[in-house]
Amino acid sequence: MADDVAQSLKEMAQHRGLKLVKSRRRKPGTGDFGKFGLIDDKGKELIGFGSDGLLTATAEEIESYLRAGALSTWQQSARVTPEKLPTRARRASAPDDAEPAIRRRARRGAVPAPARVPASATTAPPSPEKASDKAALARKGQLPTPRAKPKLAIVRSEPVLALRPAKPSDAPAVAGLLSQLSRAGPDAKAVARNLANLRKAGGDMHLAEFGIIAGCIAWSVIATPHRGNIGRITVLVVDEAHRRRGFGAKLLGLAEAALGKKGCTAVEAMSDIDIRNSHNFFRAANFDQTSYRFARAIEKPAKASREKT
After folding, report:
1. Compositional bias of type Basic residues: which residue ranges (predicted)?
2. Is pTM, for the whole model, over 0.70?
3. Model confidence over 137-180: pLDDT tens digits?
4. What are the phi and psi torsion angles at 3 (to 5°)?
5. Exposure of 93 by Cβ count < 10 A (0-12 exposed, 13-18 middle, 19+ buried)?
6. Options 3.40.50.1100, 3.40.630.30, 1.20.120.450, 3.40.1010.10; which CATH number does 162-284 get?
7. Three-state SS for 158?
8. CATH 3.40.630.30 domain range(s) in the chain
């Protein structure tokens, strides 16, 4: 039934030289489901278009608009159409060379006069020109050369950088970024597990998305007895194809603002000795090297062997 209504409205719009725009929503109650809009032959929006890009007109509103437009057009044509000419005026306006509907009967033995031929019929219609003749005249400049149709260029806009919290489904992409720091980086399952533990401990991770996930940053809150709460940047990596575009600086600013809200008085960054480019990045961001970092792995305790009895 809804398709019949839409088809009827479409035909009414075509008779008025307009085009009906129908919502693409197929699920009731979502977006502009069941709404319509009208545009003219130049693409100008006439009715049913909201500021948010959604359609707003119902089928009844579209029908009322089309019927009102048809009535106004009929009234305008009635005003400009001249009244019916009187009989004498019609006779006076008839051409002199018009052949009478009833011919007089010729006298017996008289030669009938030849039928009067209208002057317009004596001129032979122009013979159609061949395509080759038109091309030759165009080369001589006697015919205007048709304009070539302009080619439409497809312009693809560059994606916009977005900063958002990491989700468990982002674990494979984050694992790919971390592998650029170390070949033996964690897999996707380990990243998802570590992300959950990080948030339980009061930390967080955000991503830089630029068509793809182009970078990530993670931080934690370290409570110390002598310096209070310290914000620590535990990882910051930008994809090699998107470096030197300011993504790292935007991620760092986001983390510093989040740590400030948690009451941190300072922010420190952890950077491996082998990654020298990151050292220059933090120095350019007004970070001072205040200490050395020492680390070693914690060995798991050996299981006690049970003697067989």
Report:
1. 16-28
2. no
3. 666 666 565 677 777 777 666 788 999 999 999 999 999 999 88
4. -70, -35
5. exposed
6. 3.40.630.30
7. coil
8. 162-284
